[in-house]
Design a protein that fits this description.
The protein is mainly α and 456 residues long. It contains 18 helices and 5 strands. It has a 5-stranded parallel sheet, sandwiched between helices.
Length: 456
C-alpha cells in the first residue's frame, strides 16, 4: 500500500468524513492537501483570515501533516500526488458548476499519470441530483422537495476512524493566521452543542430577530465543512425523540430541519440548472428595466451602509465588519437594492459572496432570486420589504440598529428606525435617505407592469 492523497475542499474536518475513511482504507498513510485556487479565493481580508484559521485548526488536528499549496488544481494536485507516489486522490464529490468542471480537469490530468480520482460522499445529507419528481423531473418548488427529502432520508454519520496514519514532511505554504476559537471542527461542534442546549427551544419564534443572538450561526461552519449536515440532523433527531409532537423543542427542531432542507434544495436546483448561478432561473421578468449599477453612487451607498435607512445600513455594516449578516437582514437589504434602487440581483449577490464568511453560491444566489422574483418559490415581485416596518417588527427596541450605526446611538427605542422624524436624528452625522421608499416602491411596481406588458 502507498500514500493516498486526501484533497480537501468544503470538508475541513476529520469526523463524519466518508472521503477520509476511503483514503485511509486505500493507503498505508494519508496526505491531507488543500489547494488555494486563485479562481475561488480572491476574497477580502475577513474571509481570507477565516479560511486560514480553519486550515490552521485542521493542521493541528493532523499533527502538522496538512499541506497547503497555491495554484491551479489541475497542476497542483497531480504534482503533489507524484511527489508522494500516490495512486489515488480522494475527494468529497463536488456539486457546484465550477467545482464539477474543475474536478473534470483534475481527473483528466491525473489519468495521464495513471492516478485515480476517487469521489466519496457530498457536502449534503442527500446528494444534489438524487431526488426527482414522480415524472422524473427536477423539483422546482421547495415544499414538494422538502417532503421528498424527508421521505428519502439520509445515512447516519460516518464512523470515526480509530487512527489515521498521516504522511508528514511534505512541504507546503506556512499557515500564518493565529488560531481562532471560532474556527475548525472543534469550534463547530462546540457552537452546535451550545445552540442545542441554549437556543433550540426558542428558535422557531426568535429566529427572525436580529437584535437577539438566537440563530445557530452554523452556516459558516457548514460553508467550510467543519461539520456535516448529516451530523446535525442526527443530533436534531435525537433531541426530538420521545418528546410530544407539539412541544416547544419539537417546533424548534422541525424549523431548523427545514432550514437545512432549504440549503439542500438550492444545491439541488443549482445541480440541475447550473446557469441559474448568475442568470434568472425563470424568465418572466426578462424585460424588466434595471438601473446601471456600474457607477451608481446609490449602489455605493448601499454597499457602504449609507442609505439613510437604519436597518439596511446596520445590516450592510455588519457584513463589512464581520462577514456575516442575519438572514432577515439579507432579505431586507436585497429587497432594497433590487426594488428601491432597481438594480439586477447579481450585483448584490456578487457583493455578498465577496464578503460573507458563509458565502455559498447556491444558497446566496438563489436566495437573491427569491427576493427578486426570478427564482424558485419566488416571492411575488410586488412584495417589497419596507425597511421601517421591518425594523419595527424584528428590531422592536432598535438595539440591533444602534449596535451597528453609532451615529444613532442617542435615538431611543423604535424611533431609531425613522431618524428623519426625530428632532436630533441626524445630529451626529447619520446620512439623509438616498431615496424615498414609498416613491421607489411605486416605481418598482411600474417597472414590473412594464416588463409584463412587454412580454405579453
Amino acid at each position: 500500500m502507498t500514500t493516498a492523497v486526501l484533497w480537501l475542499r468544503r470538508d475541513l474536518r476529520l469526523g463524519d468524513h466518508p472521503a477520509l475513511l476511503a483514503a485511509a482504507a486505500a493507503g498505508a498513510d494519508v496526505l491531507p492537501l488543500f489547494v488555494v485556487d486563485p479562481a475561488l479565493w480572491r476574497a477580502g481580508t475577513v474571509r481570507t483570515a477565516r479560511l486560514e484559521a480553519s486550515l490552521g485548526a485542521l493542521s493541528t488536528q493532523t499533527g502538522g501533516a496538512l499541506v497547503v499549496r497555491r495554484g491551479r488544481p489541475e497542476h497542483v494536485v497531480p504534482a503533489v500526488a507524484e511527489e508522494v507516489a500516490a495512486r489515488e486522490v480522494h475527494v468529497t464529490r463536488e456539486t457546484t458548476p465550477y467545482g464539477r468542471r474543475r474536478d473534470d480537469r483534475v481527473r483528466e490530468a491525473l489519468s495521464l499519470k495513471q492516478i485515480e480520482l476517487v469521489e466519496t460522499g457530498t457536502p449534503y445529507a442527500v446528494g444534489p441530483g438524487l431526488l426527482r419528481t414522480a415524472s422524473g423531473t427536477a423539483y422546482q418548488v421547495f415544499t414538494p422537495f422538502s417532503r421528498a427529502w424527508r421521505d428519502h432520508g439520509w445515512p447516519t454519520p460516518a464512523p470515526q476512524h480509530p487512527e489515521i496514519a498521516w504522511r508528514t514532511g511534505v512541504p507546503g505554504e506556512r499557515i500564518t493566521s493565529p488560531c481562532s476559537p471560532d474556527a475548525g471542527e472543534k469550534a463547530a461542534r462546540s457552537r452546535w452543542r451550545r445552540f442545542l442546549e441554549q437556543d433550540l427551544d426558542g428558535y422557531a419564534e426568535a429566529r427572525d430577530r436580529p437584535d437577539l443572538d438566537a440563530t445557530s450561526r452554523m452556516s459558516v461552519h457548514l460553508k467550510y465543512g467543519e461539520i456535516h449536515p448529516r451530523t446535525m440532523l442526527a443530533d436534531l433527531a435525537a433531541r426530538a425523540a420521545g418528546r410530544p409532537a407539539r412541544s416547544t423543542r419539537d417546533d424548534g427542531v422541525q424549523r431548523y430541519v427545514t432550514e437545512l432542507c432549504w440549503r439542500e434544495f438550492y444545491a439541488d436546483v443549482l445541480w440541475h440548472r447550473p446557469g441559474s448561478a448568475w442568470r434568472d432561473l425563470r424568465d418572466e421578468l426578462r424585460e424588466m428595466p434595471y438601473a446601471d449599477a456600474a457607477t451608481s453612487p446609490l449602489v455605493a451607498a448601499w454597499r457602504e451602509g449609507r442609505t439613510g435607512y437604519p436597518l439596511v445600513d446596520a445590516g450592510m455594516r455588519q457584513l463589512l465588519e464581520q462577514g456575516w449578516m442575519h438572514n432577515r437582514l439579507r432579505m431586507v437589504t436585497a429587497s432594497f437594492l433590487v426594488k428601491d434602487l432597481h438594480v439586477w440581483w447579481p450585483v448584490g449577490a456578487r457583493h455578498f459572496l465577496d464578503h460573507l464568511l458563509d458565502g455559498d453560491l447556491a444558497s446566496n444566489n438563489h436566495g437573491w432570486q427569491w427576493v427578486a422574483g426570478t427564482g424558485t418559490d419566488a416571492a411575488p415581485f410586488f412584495r417589497v420589504f419596507n425597511p421601517v416596518s421591518q425594523g419595527r417588527r424584528f428590531d422592536p427596541e432598535g438595539d440591533y440598529v444602534r449596535r451597528w450605526v453609532p451615529e444613532l446611538a442617542h435615538v431611543p427605542g423604535p424611533a431609531v428606525h425613522e431618524p428623519w422624524r426625530h428632532p436630533h436624528g441626524h445630529a451626529r452625522g447619520y446620512p439623509e435617505r438616498i431615496v424615498d421608499h414609498a416613491a421607489e416602491r411605486l416605481e418598482a411596481l411600474r417597472r414590473y407592469q412594464q416588463a409584463r406588458a412587454r412580454r405579453a
